[in-house]
Amino acid sequence: MKRYRKLGATVALSLMMIFSAACGSNANNGNTGGENAGTNAEAGAAANDNAVKASGDKKITLGFSQVGAESGWRSANTKSIQESAGEVGYDLKFSDAQQKQENQIKAIRSFIQQKVDVIGFSPVVESGWDTVLKEAKDAGIPVVLTDRAVDSQDKSLYVTFIGSDFVEEGRKAGQWLVDQYKDAQEPVNIVELQGTTGSAPANDRKAGFEELIKTNPNLKVIASQTGDFTRAKGKEVMQAFLKAHKDIDVLYAHNDDMALGAIQAIEAAGLKPGVDIKIISVDAVKDGMQAASEGKINFIVECNPLLGPQLMEAVQNIMDGKEIPARIVTEESTFTSEQAKEALPTRAY
């Protein structure tokens, strides 16, 4: 990878303050960072001025290709990236792939043609990126992955991956279920709403979950199908599950939106979500936390969408020629219904 010119600008202290507020929004910490809002705004403005001055009036240009707007989590993720780029004064070239890999590849090639300084993207699926990432490497443009990884064997095609440990999220979901049914003497029938086929979170959340539940032979996944991470599809697939299976004990949804769609189907069938069918979900966005606070979702594994500050920090470090870790993991929590009720009033997303 070519040597990047040093701009001399430093990442504003506000980035770390913002990220700390994002990570702190759980049942054990109600501080949303509001008391520091004025300080953050002033520091953000200073960072903006410094970034422009240090580059000779030329802003750092970041090209970012987003998966789409399929869920509340994704919307929060997009907002975090856009606002964080604005706070540090970067020129953000943003593209919405509408959940299509071909759109992302087209966007990345457009960023290469525009000679952006850094490319960031959250890949729709794991496979099929080597060619376009090689094009970015040949053009001397560093790439940062956010939220989702790629399965390329050539790790030199990107600088770092910022995001959650999806396997660990699946393990957390599975461990809660194992603990809940440790004394079960009869089969516990589970249905699974998977995320987008081929995507890293779908693959990994399934793998982590299966790793844990196989320790109890009574825990059985009787049906598993993609819901594409959307509420509408989650409802549709859950309706099909309910028609095909009269003895569903547990639903494991790979994200809140699918769980919320499934809740609609469960209620329409005359059943009580969270009681007649236990529900486990991943994300912990506000709508999911609201459902959990009402007892409709029994357990939520958090997946923090507020990756903007970490992304901007990584971009700045790349431009400054600094070494950064190849893997940056976000900090996350879990919530029972009671914990969700406590955390909801100060939830940042």
Give a short synopsis of this structure:
The protein is α/β, with parallel strands linked by helices and 349 residues long. It has helices at 13-23, 37-54, 72-87, 101-113, 130-138, 166-180, 200-213, 231-244, 256-268, 286-293, 308-319, 337-343; strands spanning 61-66, 91-96, 118-121, 143-146, 160-163, 188-194, 219-226, 250-253, 278-283, 299-302, 327-329, 334-336. The protein has twelve helices and twelve strands.
Chain-wise SSE layout:
Blueprint: H1 13-23, H2 37-54, E1 61-66, H3 72-87, E2 91-96, H4 101-113, E3 118-121, H5 130-138, E4 143-146, E5 160-163, H6 166-180, E6 188-194, H7 200-213, E7 219-226, H8 231-244, E8 250-253, H9 256-268, E9 278-283, H10 286-293, E10 299-302, H11 308-319, E11 327-329, E12 334-336, H12 337-343
Parallel strand pairs: 1-2, 1-3, 3-4, 4-5, 5-11, 6-7, 6-8, 8-9, 9-10
Antiparallel strand pairs: 10-12
Helix pairs in contact: 1-2, 1-11, 3-11, 4-5, 6-7, 8-9, 10-12
Tertiary shape: elongated
- The total count of helices amounts to 12
Coarse structural class: alpha/beta
Total strand segments: 12
- Helix content estimate: 40-55%
The overall pLDDT, averaged over residues, is: 87
Describe the strand arrangement of the main beta sheet, using strand numbers.
2-1-3-4-5-11
How far do the termini sit from each other? 37 Å
Oligomer: single chain
Q: What does this entry look like structurally?
A:
With 349 residues, this protein is α/β, with parallel strands linked by helices. 43% of the residues lie in helices and 17% in strands. The chain is built from 12 helices and 12 strands. It has helices at 13-23, 37-54, 72-87, 101-113, 130-138, 166-180, 200-213, 231-244, 256-268, 286-293, 308-319, 337-343; strands spanning 61-66, 91-96, 118-121, 143-146, 160-163, 188-194, 219-226, 250-253, 278-283, 299-302, 327-329, 334-336. The strands form 2 sheets. The protein has a 6-stranded parallel sheet with strand order 2-1-3-4-5-11, with helices on both faces. It has a 6-stranded mixed sheet with strand order 7-6-8-9-10-12, sandwiched between helices. Helix 5 links the parallel strand 3 (118-121) and strand 4. The longest helix has 18 residues, at 37-54. It is elongated, with a radius of gyration of 21 Å. Residues 1-56 have low confidence and may be disordered.
